[in-house]
Amino acid sequence: MLNLILFGPPGAGKGTQSELIMSRYNLTYISTGEVLRNELKAGTPLGQQAKKIIESGGLVDDEIIVQIIGNAIQSDTGSDGFLFDGFPRTYVQAYILDGLFTGLQTSLSKIIIMEISDEECTKRLLQRAKEQDRTDDNEAVIRRRLQEYHEKTLPLLEFYKDTDKVARVNGLGTTQEVFERINKVISEEINTKPVNIMVYGFPGSGKTTQAKKLAEEFNLTYISTSELLKEEAQSGSNLAQQISPYLEKGLLVPDEIVIRLIEKKLKETDGNNRGYVFKGYPRTLVQAYILDGIMKKKNCAINCVINIQVPQLELVKRLDARSKTPDSMPYDGSAATIVARLEEHSQRNDAIVNYYRKNKILVDVDGQGHKDVVYERIKDHVLRAIRNLR
Question: CATH topology for 2-27+79-190?
């Protein structure tokens, strides 16, 4: 999940930037004041408690705040994370937020501070007061609000001083210029998360092209079992002698052999990348379980399965066209072999797709159109999967 806190002095433009961030990254906005007002308006037990405190002139304590924020978080459905404004404000609330994240099995991604001078904030707020006829936003009130920000809010950053969570951005410029600076920070945060992807689809769906593009852009190691098998078969090793007969006949190589090749590749590339993109594996339900086991040994998992969907007739056309190029595969030789290969895949397809769909990591992607257009569709799903990593 992508969990952000946006800090900035009054007049920095947090409200405007919050809307842009939420829209771009599908985040739920959580403001202490807003969720408290919602509880009061709904007349919930917590709202009634808070109302009594407010009416008596007191401040709503953390015991109530934590429950209200917790309710807002737990009631969220469908977003890819949270954007907090006005919370936390104290050391105690910072620990509270950590506890709430722990309950969700996630953590804080980044604190973004919009930096802008008190003079510029005052100028903006006075101009807003004039435009909106807000007599409460006079210079004395603005000074007090800025003083409170410096004395109470900014010291909270000490809580996070030994982490890499804090990012500062220049708050001057147009709305779009400031947003691009914020977006750069968020993009860099997303691109540091480890991720493992599987590209799945029928022969001719474009798996190889798309998997290699993902590997390049997201710094992933590309793993194609067919390529691993070919390389090993050409190596002249003892294992090569076992592999060659299967490849020559177009048969599935025994899982015991494939497992060893995958584990060898993982060991060779361990620590040198962000994760892996698998293409052409698994081809059976048994192999799906095997891949889960292999990844578990590395203390990770497959995070996203891209199921590229292309109509059967289009697949036949693509494979027939490929048979006339240097990229031709053994089963591209005739219409009969192409159809047989597609039928073979079809027999295993539903079990694999249903397995990953049940695990809620499979997304269907339309594979029709130019390869770059298809890639943009795939990339959107991958980015969302990365944001949803806990």
Answer: Rossmann fold (3.40.50)
